[in-house]
Specification:
The complex is a heterodimer of chains A (112) and B (114).
Chain A (H helix, E strand, L loop, with lengths): L4 E3 L2 E5 L4 E6 L4 E9 L6 E6 L5 E4 L2 E5 L5 E6 L8 E9 L6 E3 L3 E6 L1
Chain B lengths: L4 E3 L2 E4 L5 E6 L6 E8 L3 E9 L2 E5 L6 E5 L5 E5 L8 E8 L9 E2 L3 E5 L1
Parallel strand pairs in B: 2-11
Antiparallel strand pairs in B: 1-3, 3-8, 4-5, 4-9, 5-6, 7-8, 9-10, 9-11
The chains are: A mainly beta (112), B mainly beta (114).
Chain lengths: 112, 114
């Protein structure tokens, strides 16, 4: 059973465009994290959100955690080629013993 | 401070063989988690070790096992390899891994089973 759904799976855009990646679950997250992974490397943590309704910003990246703590989004403003990579959301659930469950990932390609 | 290191980086095995992968966590980190990453299934949790004890386990068959040593270094073993075990195996370390702890990932070991 896939507890966590991430969309879209692939995204190809031009430099300067905006984009949003979504992460949803039917269960409540105790916490949620967003990672970015580049080829040949392991994922790198971008942000952790814990409180419902929380909004965090990291330069051109804005992360939102839903009020009910069942969904999250990552919005990138004015995407650049350097943003290209695999974006992963990962959540912990109260009934999963603290395991970190990852979404399928969003493969983002930003063309110059 | 050195990051998480994994050895070997690449490995080719044949069906039926067994394999051992190694992970050295960041100095001071006592928790090590292992993940399998494939194009079809994404990143899936294998198990977590903390202070030499398995604290959490994913839904993988018993052919997948692991252990952690007193210096926090960890190994995972896969016996009787199958073609479907071809994947990137990632190790992540953290201070405590309870709650929203920051996990630091290694570069992974790319395992190919022929």
């Amino acid at each position: 059973t896939q507890l966590l759904e991430q969309s879209p799976q692939f995204l190809s855009i031009q430099e300067g465009e905006n984009l949003t990646v979504y992460c949803n679950s039917s269960s409540v997250f105790s916490s949620l994290q967003w990672y970015r992974q580049e080829p040949g490397e392991g994922p790198v943590l971008l942000v952790t959100v814990v409180t419902g309704g929380e909004v965090k910003k990291l330069k051109r990246l804005t992360f939102q955690f839903g009020d009910a703590r069942k969904d999250s989004s990552l919005h990138i403003t004015a995407a650049q080629p350097g943003d290209t990579g695999l974006y992963l959301c990962a959540g912990r659930f109260y009934n999963q013993g603290g395991k970190l469950i990852f979404g399928q990932g969003t493969e983002l390609s930003v063309k110059p | 401070k050195a990051g998480v290191t994994q050895t070997p980086r690449y490995l080719i095995k044949t069906r039926g063989q067994q394999v051992t992968l190694s992970c050295s966590p960041i100095s001071g980190h006592r928790s090590v988690s292992w993940y399998q990453q494939t194009p079809g299934q994404g990143l899936q949790f294998l198990f977590e070790y903390f202070s030499e004890t398995q604290r959490n386990k994913g839904n993988f068959p018993g052919r997948f096992s692991g252990r952690q040593f007193s210096n926090s270094r960890s190994e995972m073993n896969v016996s009787t390899l199958e073609l479907g075990d071809s994947a990137l195996y990632l190790c992540a370390s953290s201070l405590a891994a309870r709650g929203p702890d920051t996990q630091y990932f290694g570069p992974g070991t790319r395992l190919t089973v022929l």
